[in-house]
């Protein structure tokens, strides 16, 4: 169990304010996950049960993982992040066992947010999952989601995929991933926010956030992170040579942006 914990449990020192843009997505998650958890009696009175999972889809690098982590942070829950390949790349029978253990861990640490990335790896039409072995794992996953053997109270499940249409429709039934949320590429306003978030903990000067956001049209959040990483690295090198802080300027960032390819264009 300790090993699993080390592999999947992640600290949650982030909140919604650390995630740029995504107002609609945040609101959906508030309504579906945060409010019911904070006001269980009120929701019950209106016949609304907390629970069920949220499936996010959209281009890679646009903050699905970050937002899930921030959701856990908002409700002071424990956070477990699982890439499905970490479960799939195992001998037959072992995957089911590992998946079960992960859910057990999340129940033990409830309230917890359980985040599954690459959910499409479970799609029934995938070659590597064809046959009974794949089916067994899918059934195990569905049973865990349903809380068939155990109580899932306080366990919130979030999933992410780049291709929801590949997913077995059984996952989308009520009580499972019954809410599908599109996480779009960041628009101008969102990119401005992401730029501001990334500047906060660095010596950045004379930066026009609006201008940089304009120059990063088509960039994912992860692409913008890469822009800051490039600029930071070269400035750090200079700083080490000079033995003092050399600030990152808006110009440096615009220059760095030219080296990064916008990855969401094809969406
Ligand atoms: P994938 O589909 O590839 O798993 P993802 O949608 O889960 O991608 P994240 O892993 O959350 O994307 O994002 C990668 C990194 O990009 C984050 O750690 C963060 O640094 C940055 N990032 C992405 N989106 C945002 C955002 N909206 N606000 C701030 N940072 C962001």
From TrEMBL:
Residues 50-187 form the AAA+ ATPase domain. Keywords: ATP-binding, Coiled coil, Nucleotide-binding, TPR repeat. Coiled coil: none annotated. The keyword Nucleotide-binding applies. It comes from the Bacteria. GO terms for molecular function: ATP binding; ATP hydrolysis activity. Belongs to the AAA ATPase family. This is AAA family ATPase. It comes from Oceaniferula flava.
């Amino acid at each position: 169990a300790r090993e699993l914990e080390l592999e999947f449990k992640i600290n949650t020192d982030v909140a919604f304010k650390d995630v740029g843009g995504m107002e609609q997505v945040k609101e959906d998650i508030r309504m579906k996950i945060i409010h019911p958890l904070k006001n269980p009696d009120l929701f019950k009175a209106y016949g609304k049960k907390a629970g069920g999972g949220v499936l996010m889809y959209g281009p890679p690098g646009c903050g699905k993982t970050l937002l899930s982590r921030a959701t856990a942070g908002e409700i002071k829950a424990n956070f477990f992040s699982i890439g499905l390949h970490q479960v799939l790349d195992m001998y037959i029978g072992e995957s089911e066992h590992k998946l079960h253990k992960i859910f057990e861990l999340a129940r033990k640490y409830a309230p917890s947010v359980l985040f599954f990335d690459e959910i499409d790896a479970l799609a029934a039409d995938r070659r590597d999952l064809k046959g009974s072995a794949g089916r067994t794992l899918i059934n195990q996953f569905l049973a865990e989601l349903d809380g068939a053997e155990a109580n899932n109270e306080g366990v919130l499940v979030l999933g992410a995929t780049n291709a929801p249409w590949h997913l077995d429709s059984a996952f989308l039934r009520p009580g499972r991933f019954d809410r599908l949320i599109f996480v779009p590429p960041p628009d101008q306003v969102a990119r401005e926010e992401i730029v501001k978030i990334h500047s906060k903990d660095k010596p950045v000067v004379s930066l026009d956030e609006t201008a940089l956001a304009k120059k990063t049209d088509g960039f994912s959040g992860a692409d913008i992170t890469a822009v800051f990483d490039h600029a930071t690295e070269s400035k750090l090198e200079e700083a080490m040579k000079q033995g003092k802080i050399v600030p990152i300027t808006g110009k440096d960032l615009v220059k760095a942006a030219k080296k990064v390819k916008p990855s969401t264009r094809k969406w």
